[in-house]
């Protein structure tokens, strides 16, 4: 067993344990393996261990890996910042996009999603901690953006994504995740997917309703230096 396979085994067991601990339904939390700055060989090792969903932050890096791993049935998630001139490639190459935070980007993805593909699963990124260094829509603006994206036929709005500011302690980590979950519940549209939680705070995210946790270092170890 490779280190990656062992890491995945341990993590998936811990996820099941946390589901039970926090009263979540069994298998209600999925692991998204964040593979940015990892070689395609590492993704292949994780795939051979049963992992199917992978998240990438950088478009060209992701496209290169997608070509190299074309024979594998991978569910590709784009989790990086979206530039307008990159939307066509994102719309064609990915199954999920986690970082939509303005209608102009949503409209471009909708227009550029190939007709032969299923509608693109998208999540709205919420800047729940209101950090000036992070992307994401302000919580009070969420309702309008939900309404606008819901009208786009080539997009399937499935939920919210958040990256709260890092704090110490489980209680402090849970608070912003609880706010994201409340936002999703209060939307008139069905926002059932909550993409939140990283290798540093996924336990708190599970406790507050995360359905996708984005784990990189915990799966792959440190990122490849100089990549």
Overall description:
By secondary structure, the protein is an alpha/beta fold. It has one domain (3-220): TIM Barrel (Alpha-Beta Barrel), CATH 3.20.20.10. It has nine helices and eight strands. It has helices at 3-21, 40-48, 59-68, 87-93, 103-112, 142-150, 170-186, 202-207, 217-220, and strands at residues 30-34, 53-56, 75-78, 96-100, 120-126, 155-162, 193-195, 212-215. An eight-stranded parallel β-sheet has the order 7-6-5-4-3-2-1-8. Helix 6 (142-150) links the parallel strand 5 (120-126) and strand 6. Helix 4 packs across helix 5 (103-112). The protein is globular and about 45 Å long. It starts with a helix and ends in a 7-residue tail after the last helix. The model has no long low-confidence stretch (mean pLDDT 95).
Give the low-pLDDT segments.
Answer: none
- Alpha carbon gap, first and last residue: 25 Å
Output the radius of gyration: 17 Å
Quick one: CATH class?
Alpha Beta
Task: Name the shape in a single word.
Answer: globular
Query: Could you give a short account of the major beta sheet?
Result: 8 strands, parallel
Helix content: 40-55%
State the main characteristics.
TIM Barrel; eight-stranded parallel sheet; globular; 227 residues; 9 helices; alpha/beta
Helix-strand layout with pairing:
Layout: H1 3-21, E1 30-34, H2 40-48, E2 53-56, H3 59-68, E3 75-78, H4 87-93, E4 96-100, H5 103-112, E5 120-126, H6 142-150, E6 155-162, H7 170-186, E7 193-195, H8 202-207, E8 212-215, H9 217-220
Parallel strand pairs: 1-2, 1-8, 2-3, 3-4, 4-5, 5-6, 6-7
Helix pairs in contact: 4-5
């Amino acid at each position: 067993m490779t280190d990656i396979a062992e890491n995945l085994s341990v993590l998936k067991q811990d996820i099941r344990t946390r589901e039970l601990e926090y009263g979540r339904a069994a298998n209600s939390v999925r692991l998204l393996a964040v593979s940015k700055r990892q070689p395609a060989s590492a993704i292949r090792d994780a795939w051979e261990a049963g992992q199917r969903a992978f998240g990438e932050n950088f478009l060209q890096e992701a496209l290169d890996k997608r070509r190299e791993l074309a024979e594998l049935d991978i569910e590709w998630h784009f989790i990086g910042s979206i530039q307008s001139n990159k939307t066509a490639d994102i719309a064609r190459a990915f199954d999920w996009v986690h970082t939509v935070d303005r209608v102009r980007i949503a409209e471009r993805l909708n227009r550029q999603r190939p007709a032969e593909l299923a509608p693109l699963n998208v999540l709205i990124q919420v800047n729940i901690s209101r950090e000036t260094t992070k992307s994401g829509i302000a919580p009070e603006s969420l309702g309008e953006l939900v309404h606008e994206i819901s009208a786009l036929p080539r997009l399937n709005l499935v939920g919210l994504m958040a990256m709260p500011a890092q704090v110490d302690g489980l209680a402090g980590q849970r608070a912003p995740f609880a706010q994201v979950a409340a936002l999703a519940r209060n939307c008139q549209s069905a926002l059932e997917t909550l993409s939140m939680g990283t290798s540093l705070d996924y336990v708190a995210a599970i406790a507050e309703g995360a359905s996708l946790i984005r784990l990189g270092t915990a799966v792959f170890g440190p990122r490849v230096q100089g990549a």
